From TrEMBL:
Alphabetical keyword list: ATP-binding, Kinase, Membrane, Nucleotide-binding, Phosphoprotein, Transferase, Transmembrane, Transmembrane helix, Two-component regulatory system
The protein, known as: histidine kinase
Molecular function in Gene Ontology: ATP binding; phosphorelay sensor kinase activity
Species per Swiss-Prot/TrEMBL record: Staphylococcus aureus
Annotated Histidine kinase domain residues: 243-463
Family matches, as InterPro entries: GAF-like_dom_sf (IPR029016), HATPase_C_sf (IPR036890), HATPase_dom (IPR003594), His_kinase_dom (IPR005467), HisK_dim/P_dom (IPR003661), HisK_dim/P_sf (IPR036097), Histidine_kinase_KdpD (IPR052023), KdpD_sf (IPR038318)
Gene giving rise to this polypeptide: kdpD_1
Residue ranges crossing the lipid bilayer per the database entry: 12-35, 47-67
Reactions catalysed: ATP + protein L-histidine = ADP + protein N-phospho-L-histidine
Amino acid sequence: MIFLIGIILLSIWTRSYIIGFLAAIINVFVFNYFFTEPRYTFEVYRFDYPITFIVSILTSILTSALLKQIKFQYSITKKQLYRTDLLFQFNDSIKQTYTVENLLINAGYQINQLLQQSITIYVINQSKVIKTIPLQNHIDNTTQQHEQALSWVIKNERQAGATTDTFPGINKWLIPIGTSPIKGILAIDNQSSQVINPYDASILESMLNELSLAVENVTLLKQTRESMLQAERQLTHSNFLRSISHDIRTPLTTIMGNLDILVSHSKDMSIIEKEQLLVHSFQESQYLYLLVTNILSLTKLQSSNVQIKLQPYLVSELVEEIDMILERRHLKKRITVSSSVDLQFIHIDSKLILQALFNLIENAVKHTSTDTKINLSIRYASDEQIEFAVIDEGPGISLEEQQKIFEPFYTGSNKYFKDNQKESMGLGLYLVQTILHKHQSNLQYKPNQPHGSIFYFNIDTDFNEGDI
């Protein structure tokens, strides 16, 4: 039994079948030499000893062979588990990645763990290398032949370099990722020109297939998003042109018609009739001025390189300028300004904030009846914030409409929006929101009680001066 245990241990520790076979034979002869009569000789007196020895040899050989087979199966299973775990980690690392560059980097680290060789990533765009990313602090020493190999891989979308028949002299194995055109190249260092064993090669092939599929999916997703954004921009552009052409043409037609009447029939009209036509034309011109101003401001603010200059400005001076605008627009009778803030500086672009406030006032005037009172309230919301609020007692806005009122070109569908004499192109509130975002603020809405609307925003009193 002891010798049999020795055979088992020897079979576990060694790989060769021959060693187990020789150990089984040696085991029988040693047992015969030391433990059978006569001792210390290989002679055998009993008839059953040879049979015992033959059975022992066969048992030892069979045990050794079975253990070798079990050990081999264990090795295969262990490799399969390793392959499965490695591929699972690889898939997990790329499934939440949404850029080609990050996909290539994640794959490079996983392949580095598999092959224990340095990896260099080449990001390709429009058939050119736009970025080189060496992993594991590897210094990428490129040669002219290496550059030629890269160009060949980009053009032909096939592997090149070490282990291939194309540019075998360079010490890197260049593997293209993606198709028509390729999106990147994985360069695997192969300084000693060693051949990757078949098992690792099969894992690498699975990884590369998964990576190529993920890269194509990310590229397709990016193209789909760009197409959707392009379609949305075209729709927005079309809506903008349609709205602006209508909004400009209507008041211009009114002004031209009024002036034509004055020119053609001035002698037949009374002074009151002439004044009415002039007042109407003046109101239409004011609307045109506000519309063009809003469009120009919105275009300027949406420019990516625009900067606004925030300067200290007294709230009391802001109130005075608002009063002057209301006086000039003949709105003093309808609109009251109440301010509990006087000697307080706020950092703002005064022209833009005045435009935002007047847009809110104009919005309230447009969507309420002529006998509705409107109040501009300026007060401390806290020690560090001042609240500006335009309050009216009109019909208010439904809960459904409240979710959309700050969207561009939204003109609404309920009574609040449709009961005004002049339809809007839906830029006023959107422009106000854009201006306030430049001031690190936000336009908000809440219903007035018992009815009406309140549009309000807060400006910090301790806002840091500087460019935004």
